[in-house]
Each structure stands twice: as structure tokens, then as C-alpha cells.
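hey m, so remember when u said the C-alpha cells were messed up on ur end? i reran from scratch. heres the input so u can diff it against urs
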Amino acid sequence: MRAFLDSRGHAYVKLQASAIKDDISLNLLVDTGFSGGLSLPSGLKQKFNFPPISRATWELADDSEVELDVYLGKIKTQKGREEEIAVVFNESREGLAGIEFLRGKRFVLDLRELRVELA
């Protein structure tokens, strides 16, 4: 798991998620406006065998609401350990890493030096 900035200065985290066949590498936009764990494009859902754990309502940036199933996913941390995290699948083309994912980690976004750290 590592963090990086894209050419527009957006912070991303690269991590490995446990899929049905092999781990899948994901580049997820860090979104501090998203209170959940991970949000993945619905096209990836068939690649995972995450068990459903609940259903939740989420408020989107345009003030609309969407109700989604919540799954228990497994990701690999920097030290190679697995971490369980809540995952939702939606119609977005881009995956998100939210506040629940960042909780307990140190996240530094330095736009003066154009660097990002996640530990």
C-alpha cells in the first residue's frame, strides 16, 4: 500500500485487494468527503467474493442519496498483513478510499512540496 499524487495533484492510494483468483491492484482516489471505507466501480464486483454485511444510505456530493449493499473486503497493508474494510460498489468509474480507510493511519498531503504520505 503506497500513496502518490497524479499529474493534477490528486492523492491516490495503491493497494492490493483479495479477489477470487488473485489479488487485484487498485489505485483509489483519497476522498475525505466519503465517510466509508472503500468505494469500487460496480464492474469489479464479480472479481471479488466479499460477504455482504449490511445496507447503508450514502449522501453524494450533489446532495442526492443512494442506498448500497456494504461488503466486508480484505486488503493488504504495507507490511503484508490483511486488513478488513467495508466496501461498497457503485456506478462510478473511479474507486475511492474514504475516512474509514484512513482511520488509524497517518495521511499527509503536502501540496507545497507535491508529495503525499500514508503510514
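this time it looks ok to me. Residues 2-118 form a domain with the Cathepsin D, subunit A; domain 1 fold (CATH 2.40.70.10). if urs says something different then somethings off w ur setup not the seq
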